[in-house]
Amino acid sequence: ATDIESDITEVLVTEEQIRDKLDEIAAQVEADYAGKDLLLVGVLKGAIMVMADFSRSLKSLVPMDWMAVSSYGAGTKSSGVVQIRKDLDTDLHGKHVLIVEDIIDSGLTLSWLLENFASRGAEAVDVFALLRKPEAAKVVVPCKYVGFDIPTDFVVGYGLDYAEKYRNLRDVAVLAPHVYS
Ligand code: PRP
Ligand code: MN
Ligand code: MG
User: Fold this and answer.
1) Domain Phosphoribosyltransferase spans what residues (predicted)?
2) Distance 91 CA to ligand 3 centre (A)
3) For ligand 1, mutation pick of 106, 109, 133, 143 (most atoms within 8 Å of CB)
4) Is the confidence at residue 1, as pLDDT, over 80?
5) Could you give the angle at the alpha carbon of 63 between the alpha carbons of 62 and 69, nearest 5°?
6) Which residues are registered as beta bridge partners of 162?
7) Is the ipTM here above 0.90?
8) Is the Cβ atom of 101 under 6 angstroms away from ligand 1?
9) Arithmetic mean of pLDDT, 33-62
10) 87 in active site
11) 161 ligand 1 Cβ < 6 A
12) Tell me, what DSSP letter sits at residue 152?
C-alpha cells in the first residue's frame, strides 16, 4: 500500500539483531525472576511486537497484561499528556511487574506509568525497553533492561508508528523527514 523504501533513510536495528537481543534479555529475566511472581505488562500499542517475541523467548510460562496509553497522537513529539485508553485487568498485589516498552524517548510516558503503578500494591515494578534515546530524555526513567541505545532520530517499525503507520515493518528504521515535515 505504500512504498516503504522511499519513506526510510536508514535501518537502525535489524530483525536479527532484535531477535538475538531478546534471547539474551530473556535469559537474564529468567534468572533474575526465578521463584518470583512475574507479570509482564505490555504498553499498547507500540509494545505489541516486542511483547510477542520477548514472551516467546522466555522458557517459562509468564502471565501478560496490557495497558493502553498514548501521548504522541499523530505527531512526532510527545504531548506530555498521557491518556489511559485501556487499564490493566490484573490486581498487582504481590506481583513482580516487568513493564515491556518499545521505546523510551522523552521518558514522559514511563515516568507517568511508574507513578501510576506505585500505589497499586505491586511487590516490585521494573522496566524493559527495547529502545532508548538517552539524548532525548526529559526525565530519566529507571530501566532495568535496555535493548539498544539509539540516536534521537524519529524511528518506526517493529511496533513503532508514525500516525499509526509503519508498525508492521520488521526492522527499526529512521523515518525520512519528508514524511512528517
Ligand atoms: C510511544 C512509544 C512509547 C512512548 C515513548 O507511544 O510507544 O510508549 O511513545 O515516548 P516518551 O518516552 O517520549 O513518552 P505512543 O504515545 O506513540 O503510543 P503508541 O504506543 O500507541 O504508538
Ligand atoms: Mn507506546
Ligand atoms: Mg505512537
Assistant:
1) 16-162
2) 27
3) 109
4) no
5) 125
6) 165
7) yes
8) yes
9) 98
10) no
11) yes
12) S
Nearest in space to 88 (alpha carbons), one of 41, 54, 49: 41
C-alpha cell at 4: 516503504
CA dist., res. 16 & res. 22, Å (int) = 10
Which of the following is catalytic: 105, 126, 161, 171? Answer: 105
Average the pLDDT over 143-149 and give the result.
98
pLDDT tens sequence across 89-120: 999 999 999 999 999 999 999 999 999 998 99
Q: Where are the domains of the chain?
A: 15-152
d(CA 68, CA 60): 25
Topology of domain 15-152, CATH: Rossmann fold (3.40.50)
Which own/partner pairs from 108-113 qualify as long-range (CB within 8 Å, at least 24 positions apart)?
108/71, 108/78, 108/80, 108/82, 108/138, 108/139, 109/43, 109/69, 109/71, 109/78, 109/82, 110/141, 110/143, 111/139, 111/141, 112/69, 112/71, 112/82, 113/43, 113/67, 113/69, 113/82
CA of 6 to the centre of ligand 1 (A): 24
